[in-house]
Amino acid sequence: MNLSPMRYKDYIWPHNPTTYSIAYERQVAVHKVPFGRYCTQDLGLTCRVMRGEGVFAGEGAYEEFKALATVFYGGGPGLLIHPVWQVSSAYFTALRLEQEPLPDYVRYSFEFREDYDGYSQALEELSGGGQTAGPDQSGSPAVHTVTEGENLWAIAQNGGVTLEALLAANPAIKNPNLIHPGDQVVIPC
Predict the structure, then answer these.
(1) pTM above 0.85, yes or no
(2) Which of 105, 112, 143, 177 is the most buried (most CB within 10 A)?
């Protein structure tokens, strides 16, 4: 099976990292109550943490690591697109060089933490924002019909918008690696 490359913000891995792990955790509080008993309280899910390791090999391996490090230094959340897992907004929280770099071989590890902004999203829904009843007077969004071999990255680029903006305009698309011919994609203005 040929998987699409992993992506974060504008960086596309030349080949996917060799290992991945994802941690789902639930935070629980334990409170002491009288008579030697305890009460457990479920505080809910915490952010998912994705870790992995990879290798850049061949001519320019260290340059490729430096390009990835430049994305890390950029800060702020970005769209993380993994070839198998669901897409999420995430922070790039760790990048480690796991050995002394060689001119043609670099082994590294990384960590991403999911960005969940449910609070802001809930406020937007309560205020009535986020949904457009119809096209406004300044212009209406275009609708693109997906053809064989197309992907969302190319559709966004041809439409002159970022992938993040395209996904925001199409909340029904949960995995940008899974679109099919005939699907309708809204291209925002």
Answers:
(1) no
(2) 112
